[in-house]
Design a protein that fits this description.
single chain; 2,3-Dihydroxybiphenyl 1,2-Dioxygenase, domain 1; four-stranded mixed sheet; globular
């Protein structure tokens, strides 16, 4: 048996707002998007490096308020990139944790929390 990396699925309520946050602010790429028709909920995949995330407007897919951890390096440089964008709804801070990581938690507009972290 060989397991691959997990792909978290996060609930969203407004696709345009999600794109503003995940693509314009965080710098993720839109890999693909899908909906069954013009008036149906959107489902998409985003990526940044080796990190992949699925976002869904579909009612039954998952609940808002999830938390995911995204391991990365050079978290200070990423924080500076984000602060330079002057995004009105988030000014991320880095916190050193007692379990030998530094972390930068950011809440999306739908109450999901992304915890970017770097091992020390």
């Amino acid at each position: 048996m060989n397991f691959q990396s997990a792909v978290p699925l996060l609930r969203i309520f407004d696709y345009a707002k999600a794109k503003e946050f995940y693509i314009d602010f965080l710098g993720f790429n839109l890999d693909w998007e899908h909906n069954y028709d013009k008036n149906f909920p959107m489902y998409c995949q985003l990526s940044k490096g080796q990190c992949h995330i699925h976002l869904s407007e579909h009612f039954g897919d998952c609940s808002p308020g999830a938390a995911i951890r995204i391991e990365m390096d050079d978290i200070s440089a990423y924080q500076q990139q984000l602060l330079n964008k002057n995004y009105a709804y988030a000014k991320p801070e880095i916190v050193q944790q007692p379990w030998n990581t530094i972390e930068m938690p950011i809440n999306d507009p739908f109450y999901n929390r992304l915890i970017f972290f770097q091992q020390l």
